[in-house]
Amino acid sequence: MPIALFTRPVTAVSRTRLEPDARRRQIVEAARTLYAERAYDDVSLAELARAAGVTRGLLHHYFGSKREIFLAVMRDSTLMPETELPDLLHLTLSERVRVTMDWILDAAQTYGQAWVAASGAAELHGESDLQVVVDEADDRAARLVLDAVGLPDSPVLRARLRASAAYVKALCREWLQRGTLTRDDVLDLLTTHLVHVLEGS
User: Residue ranges of the DNA-binding region (predicted)?
Assistant: First the structure.
């Protein structure tokens, strides 16, 4: 009788081969889900690999470190939506601001947990790579708002809007994380605040 060399069948682990951009996207999406639920320090590299369905070595290959994965998630989460706003120039400034803020709150509702967490994490870590990501996102958002409401992209107006970013994120934390404000509350407060900021030119 032949001697069995293996006591159980050996099964090959099948992995789907993806293009590099698709693999990076898969990792970022998996990480986004984890970071939406838990803080950066509470998520291990092993968990990130397991959630993305890849090895830790592959994580290092694409991102180098856990920190780079987190930064990729933050960059992704602080981008404004790609859908275009309709022409608003026939509306009053207050109406234009309200429509624009309503559009931005849609993005916050979609990506909000990571987005509103980004500023808090940046404050905790001080001047850091994460702060650079947050600052870049705030500047992009300022330019987008000026363009949407039909005002010139002036350094003064952009600075005023960047300075308002902390207020925007604080309101979104109250709405999305604490449930102390409704979406309509946030929209009303933001519209009033930003009209005042933009009319002060």
Answer: 44-63
C-alpha gyration radius of the chain: 22
Average pLDDT over all residues of the chain: 80
Q: Cα separation of 38 and 59, whole Å? A: 19
The CATH number for 63's domain is 1.10.10.60
Give this prediction's pTM.
0.67
Residue position matching structure tokens 């952009």: 158
pLDDT tier for residue 2 given thresholds of 50, 70 and 90:
very low
Integer angstrom CA distances of residue 46 from 13, 18, 20, 53, 81: 18, 20, 20, 10, 31
- Domain extent for 59: 20-72
**Residue 92: pLDDT band with limits 50, 70, 90:** very high
